[in-house]
């Protein structure tokens, strides 16, 4: 992870980087942080029982990074309903049940809003483990079923 990038004392993400023709030198400071984080939890059914084999997705909350590796990860919960996403760059993530049979069109803004409304937001810190359980409610099940049609 690179954060932040400072150019002439200002964040490059706010101002961009412009190098004028007459510029002879430009001060740039970059901080590299390679400490990844982890998200783990359990998938639960309507009655808070472990949900086995549920497809779960973790993706960046930033729409520009959403489908880029390593910001996008999928897994299935294990025999105890547990899931784990490791090696995540620090930042904000959306964690949700994922309709596995759908194609990438589900990320179109109008369609994705249906899933995003039920996503859990989780903050991943460097070298830390964030714990977030997911509960499959009737509303989430209905939304996933509707998207699959």
**What is the N-to-C succession of helices and strands?**
EEHEEEEEEHEEEH
Number of helices: 3
Radius of gyration (Å): 19 Å
Broad structural category: mainly beta
The CATH topology name of the largest domain reads: Immunoglobulin-like
The count of DSSP E runs of length 2 or more, i.e. the number of strands, is 11
Detail the poorly predicted runs: none
Shape assignment: elongated
What distance lies between the first and last C-alpha atoms, to the nearest angstrom? 38 Å
Whole-number total of structural domains:
2
CATH fourth-tier homologous superfamily of the largest domain:
Immunoglobulins
Strand content: 35-45%
Please provide a written account of the structure.
It contains three helices and eleven strands; from the N terminus they run E-E-H-E-E-E-E-E-E-H-E-E-E-H. It is mainly β and 149 residues long. It folds into two domains: 2-32, no CATH class; 37-147, Immunoglobulin-like (Sandwich). It is elongated, with a radius of gyration of 19 Å. Strands 4, 7, 10 and 11 form a four-stranded mixed sheet that branches. It has a four-stranded antiparallel sheet with strand order 6-5-8-9, with no helix packed on it. Strands 2-1-3 form a three-stranded antiparallel sheet. Strand 1 and strand 2 (10-11) form a beta hairpin.
Short description:
The chain has helices at residues 12-15, 109-116, 138-147; strands at 2-7, 10-11, 28-32, 37-44, 55-60, 72-76, 82-88, 91-97, 120-124, 129-131, 134-135. It is mainly β and 149 residues long.
